[in-house]
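Hi, here's the filled form for the chain we discussed.

Project: internal
Contact: R.S.
Residues: 179
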Amino acid sequence: MNQGYRWPLVGLHWLTLLLIVAAYVIGSLLEDMTLSPLKLKFYAWHKWVGMAVLFLLPLRLLLRLRDRIDHAAGLLPWEARASAAVHGALYLLLLAVPLLGWLQSSAAGFPVVWFGVLPLPDMVGKDKALAEVFKELHEGAVNLLVTLVALHAAAALYHQHVRHDGVLARMVPWLRSRP
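And the returned structure, exactly as it came back:
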């Protein structure tokens, strides 16, 4: 029924989900760890994953614009508005969460060195109080992102198993009907 996205965007969609889950799990582990070489390694991995999400975002947006699909097809008007709002918020958070983390690292005086080889510039000067503000904003944005990802997944499953309208098949190619 619904035309699906092409493989590059589908792949980036699921890769982004895996990166978000990895960053969330690593970030959650960091909360209870005492300072150690392992904790510093986990911080580096957390930053690497977050920067990967940030740096893949422009490509995702370009591919999304290329794959023109009528998102409102088969949706009730309120569903189309809700879908647009959630997708817009997700894209905004895919930008905001890593940027807030980068700002937090900069303000805390800990540089971001992507994959241990590419030093990224500090976004702000070292400022302990500002680092705390960015930490709170980063954590709040992460919680909102995780909540919206769960809502997004629940809506996709609702469309697949209740509405049977093929919306999930747009991002899950093996669910598309064969000619």
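Let me know if anything looks off before we file it.
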